[in-house]
């Protein structure tokens, strides 16, 4: 039977990040994609001009609709900017005993816009992190979560270890643009492991974080173990960046089309 995945995240009107990136990624990775939208953003490759949050009641109804009908084999959580919305998600994921939860602690967009209110970070930590199978912070997010300054690979290992210990889940700390390489560090039950990516010289990285966490969720849904899911997700990101799509005036989106072939593409 076809595997299924749910993204709980914000909509990006420019289609490069958020719900839109998640659905494209999940589809390209062979799972049926569903969504519960936490917020609409008016956004393009140069920035975010407005955010319109769902109400907690509406988000609860979206989640009830999904979980009572097509149960997801994995769940990815992205942008959730408000405490009440985070609490609704935590309550519903517990109520339905959701599996394979990937939490991307989205705080700031590639363009620099803040995507979570300051007081919501604590709620994220207290209510959602303990439900995660894996957390996927980038370096600035790992710095906020640990209070440490991360300058080296050793710092990434220490930050991931601290976060993993505190929330009893695996942690993938993403090197990405910040350390000028594409090496990510997974801290998990077997210890730690580096995933070395080939750095691709492409300034268009809008939505890389969303894409990576959705690809991990899709692979967990297909029953790959966590390290294999990360490896496959890294490979997918490399393909999407290597396709060198160049759209928009700012940091543009990646090309998920690289993975799709067949007569309808012509
Ligand atoms: N230029 C690049 N070449 C290859 N891989 C990259 C590049 N930039 C980022 N990555 C990879 O993309 C994934 C997402 O990491 P990144 O650090 O960009 O996430 P993020 O900062 O959360 O993304 P976002 O900007 O969407 O919030 C990681 O696996 C990272 O190593
Ligand atoms: C909706 C949304 N989620 C996440 C990100 C992070 O890249 C973004 N820019 N927009």
UniProtKB/TrEMBL annotation:
Species whose genome carries this gene: Blautia wexlerae
Keyword Transferase: yes
Cross-referenced Gene3D superfamilies: 3.40.1190.20
Catalytic activity line of the entry: 4-amino-2-methyl-5-(phosphooxymethyl)pyrimidine + ATP = 4-amino-2-methyl-5-(diphosphooxymethyl)pyrimidine + ADP; 4-amino-5-hydroxymethyl-2-methylpyrimidine + ATP = 4-amino-2-methyl-5-(phosphooxymethyl)pyrimidine + ADP + H(+)
UniProt protein name: Hydroxymethylpyrimidine/phosphomethylpyrimidine kinase
Root EC class: transferase
Keyword Signal among UniProt keywords: no
Alphabetical list of Pfam families matching this protein: Phos_pyr_kin
Keyword tags: Kinase, Thiamine biosynthesis, Transferase
Pathway: Cofactor biosynthesis; thiamine diphosphate biosynthesis; 4-amino-2-methyl-5-diphosphomethylpyrimidine from 5-amino-1-(5-phospho-D-ribosyl)imidazole: step 3/3; Cofactor biosynthesis; thiamine diphosphate biosynthesis; 4-amino-2-methyl-5-diphosphomethylpyrimidine from 5-amino-1-(5-phospho-D-ribosyl)imidazole: step 2/3
Family: Belongs to the ThiD family.
């Amino acid at each position: 039977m076809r595997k299924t995945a749910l993204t709980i995240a914000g909509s990006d009107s420019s289609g490069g990040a958020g719900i839109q990136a998640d659905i494209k990624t999940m589809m390209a990775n062979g799972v049926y994609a569903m969504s519960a939208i936490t917020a609409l953003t008016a956004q393009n490759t140069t920035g975010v001009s407005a955010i319109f949050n769902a109400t907690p009641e509406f988000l609860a109804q979206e989640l009830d609709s999904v979980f009572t009908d097509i149960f997801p084999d994995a769940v990815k959580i992205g942008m959730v900017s408000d405490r009440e919305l985070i609490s609704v998600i935590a309550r519903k994921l517990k109520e339905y005993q959701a599996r394979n939860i990937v939490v991307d602690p989205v705080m700031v967009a590639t363009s620099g816009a803040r995507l979570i209110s300051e007081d919501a970070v604590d709620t994220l930590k207290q209510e959602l992190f303990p439900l995660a199978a894996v957390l996927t912070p980038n370096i600035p997010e790992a710095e906020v979560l640990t209070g440490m300054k991360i300058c080296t690979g050793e710092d990434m290992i220490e930050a991931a270890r601290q976060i993993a210990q505190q929330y009893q889940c695996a942690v993938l700390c993403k090197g990405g643009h910040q350390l000028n390489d594409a090496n990510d560090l997974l801290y998990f039950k077997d210890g730690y492991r580096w995933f070395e990516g080939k750095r691709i010289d492409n300034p268009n990285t809008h939505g890389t974080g969303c894409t990576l966490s959705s690809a991990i969720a899709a692979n967990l849904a297909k029953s790959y173990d966590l390290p294999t899911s990360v490896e496959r997700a890294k490979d997918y990101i490399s393909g999407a960046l290597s396709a060198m799509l160049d759209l928009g005036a700012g940091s543009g989106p990646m090309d998920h089309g690289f993975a799709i072939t067949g007569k309808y593409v012509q």
